[in-house]
Structure formats: structure tokens, C-alpha cells
From TrEMBL:
Keywords: Iron, Lyase. GO terms for molecular function: aconitate hydratase activity. It comes from Ureibacillus xyleni. It comes from the Bacteria. This is aconitate hydratase. It catalyses: citrate = D-threo-isocitrate. Its EC number is 4.2.1.3. Gene3D superfamilies: Aconitase, domain 3.
Length: 128
């Protein structure tokens, strides 16, 4: 998580939900964001959901040993990790929004919604 706003969004998305028992929910962030989120009571809420935190580690430093042995695939909302992750952790990687990650973690299987900008009838500012 890059900033406390992402922690707030995650806390909102997980409210009233339960992590699937076969899912390991790992969050990477830095100590400053973690401390700010902790001061707001967000860390406790997120950890009660079943997530775990790793601080001060770049996503590109993750490796296979950071995941349970039974892990076959991971899901991320980080484009950087979606690109580099498969080679770093030797697992399949799904890319989606934070909402997709939460929904998948609750269901225990990857679910990805089509981004609103790909929905039919949506055009860019230049009319394309």
C-alpha cells in the first residue's frame, strides 16, 4: 500500500466480509504508511479480516518462501508485481483492482471485473 488512503479503501472493502480459509492475504507497505494506518485503527481491522503485512520490502523482492507452499497463484493490484511476479515467485499471477483482490480473497478464487473504461459505450476525451 502506497498511502493511508489505500488502507482506508481496503478497510471499507473488507467490512463485514470473511477471508476464505484457503487464502493468504499479504499486504506490502512501508513503516510510515503502516504507522499512520495503525493510528487510525485500520491495521487492526485489516488483520481481523485475516490479512498480514510485510513492511519495507519492495514487491520485486518477494520470493517463493513468503507464500504458503500450497500457493499456486497470487492476485495483485500492482502492475509492477503483475509483470515481475511470475519470475520472482514461480507462481501464476492475476492482476485486478483492489476490489477484485478482496472479492477473490473472499470467494477463494480469482474474479476480475472489466474496468469501467473498457465497458461498452465509454469513450475517451478525444472520442475514441
Amino acid at each position: 500500500m502506497r498511502n493511508p488512503n489505500e488502507c482506508r479503501e481496503l478497510a471499507r472493502l473488507i467490512k463485514g466480509k470473511t477471508l476464505h480459509p484457503n487464502v493468504d492475504f499479504l499486504i506490502t507497505t512501508n513503516q510510515l504508511v503502516y504507522a499512520q494506518a495503525e493510528d487510525e485503527g485500520l491495521i487492526e481491522k485489516i488483520e481481523q479480516f485475516g490479512a498480514r503485512f510485510s513492511t519495507d520490502i519492495c514487491l520485486c523482492m518477494l520470493n517463493e518462501s513468503m507464500f504458503p507452499e500450497s500457493t499456486k497463484t497470487v492476485m495483485t493490484n500492482s502492475g509492477k508485481f503483475a509483470h515481475y511476479g511470475p519470475g520472482l515467485i514461480n507462481k501464476g499471477v492475476y492482476f485486478g483492482s483492489m476490489e477484485d483482490c478482496v472479492h477473490s480473497a473472499v470467494l477463494g478464487e480469482p474474479t476480475i471485473q472489466k474496468p469501467h473504461w473498457l465497458a461498452s459505450g465509454v469513450t475517451t476525451s478525444n472520442g475514441i
